[in-house]
Design brief:
- This protein is an all-alpha fold.
- 77% of the residues lie in helices and 0% in strands.
- It has 6 helices and no strands.
- The chain has helices at 7-25, 27-33, 35-67, 72-91, 97-119, 141-170.
- Helix 3 (35-67) packs across helix 4 (72-91), helix 4 (72-91) packs antiparallel against helix 5 (97-119) and helix 4 (72-91) packs across helix 6 (141-170).
- The protein is globular.
- The chain starts with 6 loop residues before the first helix and ends with a helix.
- 19% of the residues are buried.
């Protein structure tokens, strides 16, 4: 009798076969880092990927609610902002809320500037040239101030998700 494999079963077989290949051929890493250390690195990459994805989706959703449209680069910018603000909470955990929110707004503004200089040269994604105090039409003080409460909420959500994901992985 021939067993009919479903797509999920075939995917699992391919993945498990490739994992065996990776483990067999990456013995150097397993010896150098140790089995536990290699597993920790893989789980940390997975956790950061999930947090990046959630941050990117949230940023795009906020833009869709605010402007009615978004751009693919905003997904990357949002994921990067979320990870950077979460990292700020790790390196400065005792920082009071207001300076932490201001730093988060600065992170978002600088990521938005970098994204704008890379992908928004023609001002087709956004255009702040008519807003007072703008810098190269890419960032402006008005939106920097609006990022303060957003940054504070993002940091609180990042901390909760980070603890939840870490707890789920450790079980």
């Amino acid at each position: 009798m021939v067993k009919d494999f479903g797509v999920a079963e075939i995917s699992f077989l391919i993945i498990s076969k490739e994992l065996r290949f990776v483990k067999k051929n990456l013995r150097f890493f397993l010896i150098f880092f140790g089995n536990d250390r290699f597993e920790v690195i893989c789980l940390e990459i997975w956790k950061k990927s999930v947090l990046f994805y959630l941050g990117g989706c949230t940023y795009v959703a906020m833009e869709l609610c605010w402007r009615g449209r978004s751009h693919g680069s905003m997904f990357v910018a949002g994921g990067l902002c979320f990870l950077l603000m979460g990292h700020l909470g790790k390196i400065q955990p005792k920082l009071p809320l207001l300076p932490r929110a201001l730093a988060g707004a600065g992170i978002i503004t600088m990521v938005e500037l970098a994204t704008g200089l890379l992908v928004n040269r023609s001002y087709s994604v956004w255009d702040y040239r008519s807003v007072p105090g703008n810098y190269l039409g890419q960032i402006c003080p008005v939106y920097t101030c609006l990022w303060i409460p957003v940054a504070l909420m993002a940091m609180v959500i990042y901390d909760a998700l980070d603890r939840r994901i870490s707890g789920a992985v450790c079980r």
